[in-house]
Design a protein that fits this description.
The protein is mostly helical. The chain is built from five helices and no strands. About 10% of the residues have low confidence. This is Cytochrome C.
Length: 148
């Protein structure tokens, strides 16, 4: 009887460990380090929330910084000094996973999985854009994206 108890405990512990690991990976983008670089907060935050580097892989941030003359339909060019500082900050603190061929956070697989809403949600006056994280996540600027 004692020999059966040990394997059951081991199996139960293993299952719990696996489940907690799956939950952690599913929620890794719900809490990201907030933006700590002043140039990024200032320059990016003038037009939109300064998105945390951990929301995109380095390849995406590189392509975004390379295309500031047409930044999602806007001219967002920067002087060389601040541009280099922001690029280094974003790429140096980027997500460890994600699709580097995608420029938009809202096109990343993890984002799409978390935001399966009816299309009219994005048309609400208080939302208006998939990139308006703060419409639903009050603490998005602090890197907190728990389901609000």
């Amino acid at each position: 009887m004692r020999s059966l108890a040990m394997p059951r405990r081991l199996i139960a512990a293993t299952v719990l460990l696996l489940l907690s690991g799956a939950a952690a990976s599913a929620n890794e983008f719900e809490r990201v380090r907030p933006v700590t670089n002043d140039a990024t907060r200032k320059e990016c935050g003038e037009c939109h929330m300064a998105f945390q580097p951990g929301l995109l892989p380095a390849g995406s941030w590189t392509r975004i910084m390379d295309g500031l003359d047409d930044h999602f339909g806007e001219k967002a060019s920067l002087p060389p000094g601040p541009a280099a500082e922001i690029r280094a900050y974003l790429t140096g603190n980027a997500a460890g996973r994600g699709d580097p061929t995608l420029l938009r956070i809202t096109e990343q697989r993890w984002w799409l999985r978390e935001h399966r809403f009816r299309p009219e949600v994005w048309l609400r006056k208080d939302v208006l854009s998939k990139a308006n994280c703060e419409a639903c996540h009050r603490d998005a600027a602090r890197g907190l994206y728990d389901n609000d």
